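Title: Prediction job returns without error message
Component: structure pipeline
Severity: low
Priority: P3
Assignee: unassigned

Description:
Job completed but the reporter wants confirmation the result is attached to the right record. Sequence as submitted:
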Amino acid sequence: MQNYFPLTDYTYTMKIAYLIDQFFEHGGIEKILAQKINYWITHFGYEVVLITCRQQEKPFVYPLVEQVQHIDLNIQYDLSKSYFTRVNILKSQKHCSALKQIIKKIKPDVVISTSFTPDQYFLPYINKSIPKIKELHASGFTLTKNMGGLKKRLFQTLKKYDRLVVLNEREQAYFPDYPTAIITNFIEAAATEVADLDKKKNIILAAGRIAPVKQYDHLLKAWAIVAKDFPDWVLHLYGAGDATLKNKLQDLINTHQLTTQAYLMGGTQVLAEKMDEAKIFGMTSETECFPMVLLEAQRSGMVVLSYQSPHGPESIINHDIDGLLTKYNDFEEYARRLAGLIGDNQKMHYLAQNARRNVSRFSADVVMGAWNHLLMTLTQKDKK
């Protein structure tokens, strides 16, 4: 990544159009998008237009500075059905037409898409003179799995973007003949000093949307193996999402007699405060591209124990230095490492202290400097 240059070094203005399907649901993509938009405006003085397709009048889930412009196209896809069903194909045609009109009207210098709605496929063909960037926040491990037929042909359209931004080198390997760039996400500096590990509570914390990919059942099964050996410890799982899956997770808690040591806490607006109270962060996901929640956990002084999931955790955690990685999808091994960690206070202190220090690798200044270099290169503004 490029070095960060202060705002005073820039003499150009920039208008950025940012595309996402919605900005009312909690999620890592939405959170980092808010941070980027606010940074573009407050540090670079750029103009940013946020374009959604199904926001309607819902409030923003994360705060945005007042200078941001917002346009909602009001394309309400039927999310209970595939995007390739007739009803959604018709809506995608309307989506394409509306997006063409908006881009023509606002005349952005660059368009950045984080969407996984159909617009990601037709966006490169809209006003080809405007550079287009596709941000990938999902792992290529998942995106390219069982790919064939129409899905494969559509995925090839991503080559039409001027850049495909991936979050780590392992992800870049899934796109060998695409115009890729590697730029990580960033973590904002902690507002206050967090409590020393000894002052934290004996809490194992997990957080994220309730979805199959997070494999919270693995975490609960691992905890069930060792919980009886640590009666003064509890597991708190924060997140909202799939109601049916949430009921299954609660059934798992009941079945393993964990009702006094494992709790589904629901969603929270104060996750950082909850992290400041807890000692260990647990992750057992099927895939993770660049889990921001791990950076937040490290910033808070927590000890991170994660599956070596494809491919995000290994791009953040230096194993046995600022966190621990365990064998992928082996919850019994995870349980053994968890028990060993809880029983070794000196080890926990070592990992937590390193995590607080090493998370500075992902500072906003470094990451947004790399983003700005990319924008300047694509728009040729650095050559004018």
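Comment from assignee: result matches the submitted record. The longest strand covers residues 47-52.
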